From TrEMBL:
List of catalytic residues: Y62 (proton donor)
Keywords from the named record: NADP, Oxidoreductase
Pfam family of the protein (one): Aldo_ket_red
Keyword Cell inner membrane: no
Site residues by UniProt (Lowers pKa of active site Tyr): K87
Name of this protein: Diketogulonate reductase-like aldo/keto reductase
Protein residues bound to substrate: H120
Sequence similarity: Belongs to the aldo/keto reductase family.
InterPro entries hit by this protein: AKR, Aldo/ket_reductase_CS, NAD(P)_OxRdtase_dom_sf, NADP_OxRdtase_dom
Positions of transmembrane segments: none
């Protein structure tokens, strides 16, 4: 392993955010949504952990919680050193069914306590009961933090009107091309940590001349610039890859910063390019 990777391990283990309940969460992690490549997920997670990653983001619908657990075990790292997020899927929402879904996920992950449990999408008829179930899991100490995914301010307003615990995290799609400063500002005002997925836009923008110019100036790839932009928004960031070299490159982003002008320019790139659905237009 190169000295650079060793350096990244040292830096990354100290790069974290503190959630609103005091739990520390790594700033950069690995997303493992890979429906066509679940057989390769275990290897990808092992490579990420080798590169210094300590945050793995999975979900019940991804069908790879077992592979994530196997990778953590194979790494030899203490379980407590790896922050694991999973999520309750739409068809499992509701009070009792969410509790059952959590038991299933925790079993596959081989954990009595999961670091972060999220509501995957805001399912209108079950939002309140699903959140009540997450609050129960939290108060019983079965999860260290609870939160939501794909929630915009209208969904959060509704949730906070009923909740007794404020979500610790809101995981949303985030890139310069899907940049919603209103959502980020709302979450900051409520003490909710934003987590950004699909920062690389599945490669759709890798040759954007604006990105290319910034990347050349830093001697980095456009993908590394996108990851750095997301992190500098204050967002926990979870790029996805199943390729070893790309995984290593995705975590080699701690030795440069985007300046104010570069960030401001990227903040103007919004064109609503999305990988997932728009939370404002689905139910």
């Amino acid at each position: 392993m190169s000295g650079l990777i060793h350096l990244n391990q040292h830096i990354m283990q100290n790069e974290s955010v503190t959630l609103n309940n005091g739990v520390k969460m790594p700033l950069l992690g690995l997303g493992v949504y890979a429906p066509s490549h679940n057989s390769e997920v275990q290897q990808a997670v092992e490579w990420a952990l080798e590169a210094g990653c300590r945050l793995i983001d999975t979900a019940s619908i991804y069908g790879n919680e077992t592979e994530v657990a196997a990778a953590v075990q194979a790494s030899g790292l203490p379980t407590t050193d790896v922050f694991i997020t999973t999520k309750v899927w739409n068809t499992d929402q509701g009070y009792d069914s969410t509790l059952r879904a959590f038991d299933d996920s925790a079993g596959k992950l081989g954990r009595d306590v999961v670091d972060l449990y999220l509501i995957h999408w805001p399912v209108k008829q079950h939002r309140h009961d699903t959140w009540r179930a997450l609050e129960r899991l939290y108060t019983e100490g079965r999860v260290r933090a609870i939160g939501v995914s794909n929630h915009y301010p209208n969904h959060l307003d509704e949730l906070l009107n009923q909740a007794t615990i404020t979500p610790a995290v809101n995981q949303i799609e985030l890139s310069p091309y899907c940049y919603r400063p209103d959502v980020l500002d709302y979450c900051r005002s409520k003490g909710i940590q934003v987590e950004g997925y699909a920062p690389l836009v599945r490669g759709k923008k890798h040759d954007d001349p604006r990105l290319v110019a910034i990347a050349e100036g830093h001697q980095k790839s456009t993908f590394q610039v996108l990851i750095r932009w997301s992190m500098q928004q204050g967002a926990v960031t979870i790029p996805k890859s199943i390729h070893r070299e790309r995984i290593q490159a995705n975590f080699d982003v701690f030795d440069f910063e985007l300046n104010t002008d570069e960030t401001a320019m990227l903040n103007t790139c919004y064109d609503n390019t999305r990988i997932a659905d728009d939370p404002d237009t689905i139910d």
